[in-house]
Amino acid sequence: MSWNSIVGHENQIRVLKTALGSNRLAHAYLFAGPEGSGKETVAFELAKILNCRNTNLLPDEGSCGECESCRQADKLMHPNIEYLFPVEAALLETIDPSKKENKKVAEARERYEALLDEKRKNPFFTPTMERSMGILTEQVVMLQQKASLAPRDGGKKVFIISQADRLHPTAANKLLKLLEEPPAHVVFVLVSSRPESVLPTIRSRCQLLTFARPRPAEIEAWIARRAPQLDETERRFIVSLSRGNLSSALELIEAETGEGAAPAVVGIRNKAIDYLRNILVPAKFHEAIGTCEELAKSSTRTEQLIFLDALLLFFQDVTRRSIDHNFPELNNPDIAENTDRFVKAFPNRDLYRASTIIEEAMRAINRNASVILVMAAMTADLREILLGK
Ligand SMILES: [Zn+2]
Q1: Residue 90 CA to ligand 1 centre (angstroms)
Q2: Is the pLDDT of residue 56 over 90?
Q3: Superkingdom of this entry's organism (predicted)?
């Protein structure tokens, strides 16, 4: 991972490069930006650069990604790099062999390790323990202790605090003390997708760096590098499905190219378009219902959600093309003809209402509602809206 491997964020990287080059790095940053935009990957790259042992590199390139230090950082096991996120209190209890609660602690540790594993695989993932009350005081006390020790091997200590808006009030006050008198060898990077919820006194001690979602073209170029076996249609569709969230995009790439049954997103999309066609032909309505039954019975939830999302993205294309016949950046450029035919055949349909109904179905499926009931009701509603019956 060097600067080149970061998806997007050119301006933010330039700010950090300049600070590094002139030795004027702030002692504390607040990286603010939407969930899944990859701001934590920038925080980790900064931490790696400050500890990389390969001194032959040009300062512009970033970390080498190969030295012992870089490899430890990638494994989230670097002694100078601390990564904090909201955990549950049980994790911080010490194991007392005479107590029954040991099982509770051991289970919490397992959950914690599983989240770290996920983070190693997916650097855009935001880990958080479900039963967490936030980032806890004990976690910040540990940081205080670590801050008082010199960094190893001449590097710098970097404390990356994920979801900094979830600092417990007592923890936040302790952190504030650290930020007020920061040891020279420590760099703090607070990360948040809700920076307005970070304590103002903490915010004012940090240099703010605001991140936006990477642009679709940047995400598409990254997918092409990461998964060259995917074709353009697949890439474009993954970009649309992920809506700028790199964590979702990576999950889709993994599902598409990883081991085991691939959901083949474009195949699912084609099925969704066929389904829509069947809704619109009265004699074929039963086939649309058949698709619902098949989805309910033999698809995973992810596949069901991709199916519904594909309908949303198709309606979005239809809306764009009905406003501007030459709209260029479609979610589904390979089936632009179908889209245009739909625009002609069904003008002035309430696609906003149709989309709302699909979004409601997605929420219901996420809440574990019966898939067949949800989809059958949605199908009837869509027919009514699209055919005006
Ligand atoms: Zn290195």
Answers
A1: 35
A2: no
A3: Bacteria
Residue whose structure tokens are 């952190």:
175
Distance 117 CA to ligand 1 centre (A): 21
Enumerate residues with CB within 5 Å of ligand 1 (an ion): 52, 54, 63-64, 67, 70
Q: What is the pLDDT of residue 348?
A: 83
CA of 235 to the centre of ligand 1 (A): 31
Q: How is the beta sheet containing 207-210 ordered, strand by strand?
A: 81-84, 157-161, 186-192, 28-32, 207-210
Half-sphere exposure in the Cβ direction for 354 (13 Å, CA) = 27
| CA 70 / ligand 1 centre spacing (Å) | 4
Cβ neighbours of 23 (radius 10 Å): 6
Which of the four pLDDT bands, split at 50, 70 and 90, describes residue 105? confident
**What are 132-148's pLDDT values in tens digits?**
999 999 999 999 999 99
> What spacing in Å lies between the alpha carbon of 66 and ligand 1's midpoint?
5
CATH fold of the domain at 3-210: Rossmann fold (3.40.50)
Split at pLDDT 50, 70, 90, the class of 254 is confident
